[in-house]
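Cross-check.
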Amino acid sequence: MNTTALLMYLGANITVAAFTAYFFYKVLTTPAQKHDDDEA
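Predicted model, tokenized:
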């Protein structure tokens, strides 16, 4: 594998991992919304 292919591979993997981590963090830190039909 040449250097260009390795850099492209790493860049794609890091980008996907960063987006995944960002949205996972966002889901875990967003407070639950209160709905009117949650009375029980």
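The chain has a mean pLDDT of 92. Helices lie at 3-29. Passed to J.P. for a second look.
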